[in-house]
Amino acid sequence: MKKTALVIMAAGIGSRYGGGIKQMESVGPEGEIIMDYSIHDALEAGFNKVVFIIRKDLDEDFKAVIGRRIEKVTEVAYAYQELTDLPDGFQLPEGRTKPWGTGQAILAARDVIHEPFCVINADDYYGKEGYRILHDELIASEDQGPDAVQQISMAAFVLGNTLSENGGVTRGIVDLSEDGRLIGIRETKNIIKTEDGAAAMRDDGIETLDASGLVSMNMWGLQPSFLEVLKEGFPKFLNALGPDAATREYLLPDIIDRMVAGGKAEVKVCRTDDVWFGVTYREDRDAVRASIADLVQKGVYKAPLFS
After folding, report:
1. Which structural domain range is residue 141 located in?
2. Position 196 in a domain
């Protein structure tokens, strides 16, 4: 059986969540957290390894809450995203306290990822379909190496299925070609639900958005050679920081967007109609618990989940 990994980015602090560690919030009837459901769905789809990207200061708490339980059901590896994990010749910019972003998070796992992988956010519930689609894509594709055009797959969600009742969210609006390939991703902040569907609240006014359009939720299918692409790109990113050295991030959607524009990547956009939910805000927690309880009642999940 071909090895495939689920890579979970769990090093984020969650500033909009009031300073708590939202990735560790209990949402299931037996104390399950969102990551439990993501891992369950990925294993069900055929993934057979889990890589957790966390902060070193969360190591023991993280393993106590979820890591050691998951080690009993599948192969597990850990990687640590650190501000000081920089290429030779670079130093941490003065005043920098913000993590370097999702691109550096995945790069932090370069020593433990050796197989095709799906990357997700720790605090997002994606549903089952995306894992099945991306696993099939990864199984069917071959890694052509870092110098070849990267073949990437992305699970794309319907915008209206990804909004919070409790405030604005940031989503990557997807621009598609006629054959379903990615042309570009436009990061759009502060998207809210409206009577007509969705809108982005901008400093210069309100931008009405198509709630039936597709968005990226940072759920990607990638080959191990992509790590070499990230490794080559990170020093270039650091050299171009300029006055934004304290805050600018090496973000996966931006990296892939530039690769597509430069002809260095082709992204197959795979639509899923599953409903996303997550704990962007503390007020989202009760809605997530109610959604999980409904799925358990319908028989989509067991309680306890891994029983």
Report:
1. 5-297
2. yes
> Is residue 50, in this structure, part of any structural domain at all?
yes
Q: Which two tokens stand for residue 216?
A: 């990226």
Q: Is residue 303 part of a domain?
A: no
Q: Using 50, 70 and 90 to split pLDDT, how confident is the model at 178?
A: confident
Number of domains in the chain: 1
Each residue of 17-58: pLDDT tens digit?
A: 344 555 677 899 999 999 999 999 999 999 999 999 999 988
Side-chain half-sphere CA neighbours of 95 within 13 A:
6
Percent of residues, the chain, with pLDDT higher than 90: 81
The answer to whether position 156 is within a domain reads yes
CATH of the domain at 111: 3.90.550.10
Q: What would the pLDDT profile of 159-177 be if each residue is shown by its tens digit?
A: 999 998 888 999 999 999 8
